[in-house]
Amino acid sequence: MPNPTLPRERIDYSAIVDRPALRLPSGARLVFWTIVNLEVWDIGKPMARQVLPAPTGQPMLPDVPNWSWHEYGMRVGVWRFFDLFRRLGIRPTLSINARVCEDYVRVAEEAKNAGWEFMGHSYEQGPIHKEPDQAAMIARAMGILEKFTGKRPVGWLGPGLTETYDTPELLAAAGVKYIGDWVYDDEPTTIRTANGPLVTLPYTVELNDIPMMIVQHHESDYLLKRTIDQFDRLHAEGANRAKILALAIHPYISGQPHRIKYLEQIYEYAARHDGVLHWNGEQILDWYLAQSGAATKAAE
Amino acid sequence: MNDAAKRPPVGMLPTERIDYSPIAGRKVPPLPGGARMVVWLIVNVEEWDILSPMPRTVLTPPAGGAPSPDIPNWAWHEYGNRVGFWRMLKVFDESRIRATLAINGSAIKAYPQIVQAANARQWEFIGHGFTQRNMQKVEDERADIRRTREVITSASGKPPRGWLGPGLTETWETPDLLAEEGYDYVCDWVLDDQPVWLKTRTKPILNVPYTQECNDVAMMLIQHHKASEYFDRARDQFEQIYEDAAGGPRVMALVQHPYIVGAAHRLKYLRQAVELMAARKDVLFWTGAEIADWFRAGTPAERA
User: Fold this and answer.
1) Which residue range forms the structural domain that includes residue A94?
2) Considering the domain boundaries, does residue A271 fall inside one?
3) Which domains does chain B have, with CATH numbers?
4) CB distance B72–A160 less than 8 Å?
C-alpha cells in the first residue's frame, strides 16, 4: 500500500483519566463479555498453533497430531461450554470462522439455537495478511453467517486479531459496526475509516487462553487466578466508571477436562459479586452508542 | 587470531572499561541518615512504531511469521499508555515515591499527557533510545543519543543525566558516545549491586545498578511467570539485598512497563512490592541521578 492509514490517523492518543466516565445502567460496575472462538484448521495447511512440535522441529504436512488436538475441541470440548452456559443462562459472543457453518453444522446450529451472538472471524483460520482478496473473503464470511443465522453480524474479530492497514475500511464497507482487534483500552472507542466510523470493543489478549496456556505455558488453574485478579481490579475501578471484562476461550484449550473446572469457577466467582452484567458484543455496542455523544467525542 | 584481530573496530571491550572487582570489602560512601540501601523504580515508556515489527508480542499470528501491520500487539502495548500508566501513577503517588522515567525520544511527542504527569511529580527523565529498537540497528548512534537528549531537555526543562539502552542494547562504542554527549550515567551494565565507573575514550561514565531480574519484561514476557511472581521476586530480592547491606550500602532496582505491570490483573503485585519496601524506615527511594550524586561525591572517578 503506498499510503497506509496508520492507527494514529484513525484516533489520537487519549489518556483514560481525561475522558468523561461512561456509566452502566442501574449502577452496575462492569460488563462481563464472554467470547467463545470456533475455528477451522485446514489439514492441507500448517496448523494455526501447535501443542506438540514435530521431532527435530522440522515442520511437516499433514500435521495430524496438532490438527486432531484442535479437532478435539469441536468434538468434545465445545459441548462442555454449551452445557456450562446453558446452566448459567449466559449467551456468549461466538467468534466464528464462517467455514464452521459448513464443516461443523452441528456445532453452529447449537450456538444459533442457544441464542449466541455470531461475530465474524474470517472464513477460516490464518493471518489476514495472507488473504489474496481480503474484501472478497470478508464479504464471503459475512454472507455465510448472515445466511446461516438470518442476521448480518455487527461484530468482527480478525483471525489472531490480525489486520492489514486497510482492514477497517473493508470491514466498515461490509457493514461491520464493531471490531475486537484493538485491545488498547478498557472502554469502547470510535475510530475513523474512509467508510464511516467503527467502534472498538475491549477484547483481550490478557484474559485469553491462547496466550496464557499455549504461548506462556501457565498451569491450568492460572486461568482462574488471573481472571479473579483482573475481575477484582476492574470491579473496584467500576465504582467510578464502567469497566468491561472480556474473557476469550477456545474449546480445544479451556474445553479440556483438566481445565474446564477453572472456567466454571470463574463464573461462580463472578456470581458472588453485585453489579456484574453478562452482555454480548452487540449489547455493549448498543449501550456505548446510546451514551450521549460518547462516540463522537471519542473520535475527535 | 592475534589480539588486534579480536578487538572491535571502534570502542572498547567491556573488560577494558572496567576491572573485575569483588563487592566484598569494597569501600563505598555511606548513605545519609544511616540508611542501609537505596531502591529506585524505573518506569519504561516506549512508542512502538506500527510500521516496524513489534519489539515484543503477547500473541503470535496464526501459523507463525511476522506479518505487518501487527495490530494486536501494537494495541496491547498501547493499552499501557492509555490505561496502565495511570493505574501505576496512583501507586507511586500514594507512597510518595518519585520514579525514574526511561522514555523513548519519540514517546515524548506521542504521549504528552504522560510527560506532563511525570513533570508535575518531578520524576527524573532518562534517555531510552529515540525509538524502541536495538542500538546496533540504529543508523547513526550519536545522532540518536543527541536527539533524545534534545527532546527530553525541551520536555522536562533539563538535560537527561541518565541513559538506558532499548532492551539494554549497546554497541562497542555506546559508553564513549554517551559521555561525549553529556550523559552522566548509564544503566545497561547489570553487573553489580553498587554503582561502578566505566572508562570511556574521554572521561569515565558511571553505571547505576539496573536489573534484568526484577524486570517485568523478563519475568512475564520471556519467562512467562504468573503475575504474582512480580511481587514474590521483588520481596525476595529486597530482603536479600537489605541483609547484604549490613556490610555496606546497596542499590536495588525494580522495573516497570505500563503495558505489563499496568495490566489490571498485575497491578496489585506492584502495589504490594512498593508497600513492602516503603514500610522499612532505613530504605531510601531515590531516582537514578540521586544515586549517581551520592556515589560520585564519595567515590570520584579518579579513585575508581
Assistant:
1) 22-46+59-299
2) yes
3) 32-50+68-303 (3.20.20.370)
4) yes
What is the ipTM score, two decimals? 0.81
Task: Please report, for the domain that includes residue A221, its CATH number.
Answer: 3.20.20.370
Q: Which of A41, A170, A183, A204 to mutate to test binding with chain B, by most B CBs within 10 Å of its CB? A: A183
* Nearest C-alpha in A relative to B62: A48
Residue A299 has pLDDT above 70, yes or no: no
Q: What is the pLDDT of residues B12-53, one digit of tens each?
A: 999 999 999 999 889 999 999 999 999 999 999 999 999 999
d(CA A197, CA B220): 35
DSSP category for residue B246: G
Q: How many residues does chain B have?
A: 304
Instruction: State residue B67 phi and psi, 5-degree precision.
Output: -65, 150
The 10 Å CB-count burial string (b at 16+, else e) for A223-240 is: bbbbbebbbebbbebbee
Beta strand A189-191 with A198-200: parallel, antiparallel or unpaired? antiparallel
Residue A10 lies in a domain: no
Q: What is the pLDDT of residue A154?
A: 98
Q: Tell whether omega for the bond before B69 is within 30 degrees of 0, i.e. cis.
A: yes
Helix (H) or strand (E) holding B301: none
Amino acid letter, residue B32: P
pTM of the full predicted structure? 0.88
Pairing relation of β-strands B250-256 and B196-198?
unpaired
Contacts of A246 in chain B (CB under 8 A): none
Average pLDDT, integer, range B109-116: 98
What pLDDT band is residue B1 in, cutting at 50, 70 and 90?
A: very low
Give which of A187, A229, A247, A262 to mutate to test B binding, by max B Cβ within 10 Å: A229
The residue type of B236 is D
CB contact under 8 A, A215 and B59: yes
B91's grid cell: 501507586
A123 belongs to a structural domain: yes
* Beta-ladder partners of B276: none
Domains contained in chain A, number: 1
Chain A residues whose CB is inside 8 A of the B110 CB are: 8, 13
SS3 A206: coil
- Partners of B76 on chain A (C-beta within 8 Å) are 183-184, 205
Q: Where are the beta strands (DSSP E) in B57-201?
A: 100-103, 124-127, 162-163, 185-186, 196-198
Q: Cα separation of A197 and A189, whole Å?
A: 10
A228 in a structural domain: yes
**Cβ atoms of residues A229 and B265 within 8 Å:** yes
